[in-house]
Specification:
alpha+beta, 6-stranded antiparallel beta barrel, disordered C terminus
Length: 547
């Protein structure tokens, strides 16, 4: 079946080549005829060709090449600078996971580790003593800073509270003046003094009236003297009451003055209060900074005590790790495909490679015209010239859909050596049980589609009308050897490199004109019939130009 498909494709290619040649000859022939004076072209003269409609294999495959690789590759590496003491494998050996592959001479590394451990121990003891002293000093400094903070803040707080109280009392005194009780007492004393003056003045008026009345009466000398004395006493009483009033008014004014406060005095109290407040805040900040600094010093001292001897400890860890790596074990089962060491050598980097030959894959290059067709999960058939007749099935598991710089892909559809420039790639996992070996060159046939057999014609056999609808021209042989031409609408389906599937009122074996634009529906035409088995199956006699 596979050989039949290949043969059919070869024949299809042959048809295409013949078709191209025929079209070129026809074009030249028409051009010459049109250039000739009085020339006219008839269909029978330019060699119209038809092909029997047949089933075509529309499956599409992509053929590429590649090499067999392992799906699982394990590399043994090292950064040791020791000699290989024992080597238990050779190139091509099969090993099992966990097998001892090789071992290094550990004597030099072990001696270095011992000496370094002693040096680190001595240095650490010296460092411990120094660190303990540093921690003790830092703890004392922190304690002193904490005590100083407590005392400083207490003093600043006391000054702040006193200034705050004086300012608040000043504001109250400015707003309210004397207490109501004291002010009421002063008002009462002032009113009493005023009333005493008024009473003395009334008494003086009465004494004067009595004295005047006595003059009008014929009083005795003694009575007159008594009235005069009463006037004088009344006058003295007025003077005394007025003096008492003046003293009371002066005392009232002085007391009222002392019971209030001026704006300047209140501003001074406010300034003192704000200064005390700032001093308290600054004291808290400065003492907090001092404590933070002391705490940081303590943390630094403690951290220094906990820090390892960085450079020496790192070197010791490296030596201890190297001692643990003196024996190399196989990380997986497989075949030793690369060996970069020998007994007695001092290797570095990659020691050896183990590849699992029970799980194989093929990495293939894909040209840019084909990469868009490749999908994960597609099936592939792998063959090798080393194993003639054996086919191995595989599945695409990874498509690398970016071009690798400088890579080229070959196009086996031509002569197998045509380069198509920068390419893409894919990984194909092989089914287990094949006889393929690691590194073998293989051919890979990727099944892009599996459409099977369908009625199909070449691209050039499909015509397009003014509405964009597709059709083919079908030829039916007449008794006179010419052919009737019929236009048949068709629907075009999938296509490959040579054919397109058509559906419509057509059947296998129908003669389809290879170039529908060379004929006219309803006009009898002479033509040549071609199939895939011979160049010309049947050729009409073109010597007769009867219409």
């Amino acid at each position: 079946m596979e050989e039949a498909k290949k043969t059919k494709k070869k024949r299809s290619k042959k048809i295409w080549v013949i078709g191209i040649v025929v079209i070129a000859v026809v074009a030249i022939f028409i051009f010459v005829k049109l250039k000739s004076p009085g020339s006219s072209v008839e269909y029978g003269e330019i060699g119209v060709e038809a092909v029997p409609l047949a089933m075509q294999d529309m499956s599409e495959t992509i053929n590429v090449t590649g090499k067999v690789e392992s799906q699982n590759v394990w590399l043994a590496t090292t950064d040791l600078t020791a000699k290989v003491k024992d080597l238990n494998v050779a190139l091509g050996d099969r090993v099992q996971e966990g097998d001892v592959l090789l071992s290094f001479d550990e004597s030099d590394v072990a001696e270095q580790a011992t000496e370094l451990e002693k040096s680190i121990s001595t240095a650490r003891e010296q460092s411990r003593t120094q660190n303990e002293s540093a921690i003790s000093n830092a703890e004392m400094a922190l304690s002193q800073a904490q005590r100083s903070q407590k005392d400083s803040i207490a003093t600043a707080q006391e000054g702040y509270e006193a200034a705050k109280k004086a300012y608040q009392e000043g504001k109250k005194k400015k707003k309210e003046g004397l207490p109501k009780s004291e002010k009421l007492k002063l008002d009462n004393e002032l009113n009493a003094a005023k009333k005493a003056v008024e009473s003395a003045q009334v008494a003086l008026v009465r004494a004067q009236l009595a004295y005047q009345d006595g003059l009008d009466k014929d009083l005795s000398m003694s009575e007159s003297i008594d009235l005069a004395q009463a006037v004088k006493d009344a006058q003295d009483g007025v003077v005394s009451a007025e003096n008492a009033l003046k003293q009371t008014q002066a005392a009232y004014k002085e007391t009222m003055k002392n019971g209030s406060i001026t704006d300047d005095e209140l501003e001074k109290l406010k300034t003192a209060y704000e200064a005390a407040k700032r001093n308290l805040e600054n004291t808290k900040l400065s003492t907090a900074d001092a404590i933070t600094s002391a705490e940081n010093s303590l943390d630094t001292a403690r951290a220094s005590a906990d820090e390892p001897m960085s450079e020496s400890d790192t070197q010791l860890s490296k030596l201890q790790r190297q001692l643990n790596q003196m024996t190399i074990y196989a990380g997986q089962s497989g075949v030793v495909t690369q060996l970069n060491v020998s007994k007695g050598s001092i290797p570095n980097g990659t020691l050896l490679k183990i590849e699992d030959d029970s799980a194989l894959k093929v990495n293939v290059s894909i040209s840019e015209k084909d990469i868009v067709k490749i999908k994960e999960g597609m099936k592939a058939t792998i063959t090798s010239n080393a194993l003639p007749g054996e086919e191995v099935e595989g599945t695409i598991t990874q498509v690398i859909n970016f071009a690798s710089a400088g890579a080229t892909a070959t196009d086996p559809s031509a002569d197998g050596s045509v380069s198509s420039g920068s390419n893409y790639s894919a990984n194909i996992v092989l089914e287990p049980g094949s006889h393929l070996l690691l590194g073998m060159s293989v051919k890979v046939n990727i099944a892009v589609s599996s459409e099977g057999e369908n009625l199909a014609v070449s691209y050039d056999s499909i015509g397009y009308d003014e509405n964009g609808d597709t059709y083919v021209m079908r030829a039916t042989e007449r008794k006179d050897g010419k052919y009737d031409i019929e236009k048949v609408p068709v629907t075009v389906g999938i296509s490959n490199d040579y054919y397109s599937v058509i559906e419509g009122d057509v059947s296998e074996g129908d003669l389809i004109i290879m170039n529908p634009y060379m004929v006219t529906e309803g006009q009898p035409t002479e033509l040549s019939v071609i199939d895939g088995n011979s160049e010309i199956l049947y050729e009409t006699d073109t010597s007769d130009s009867e219409g």
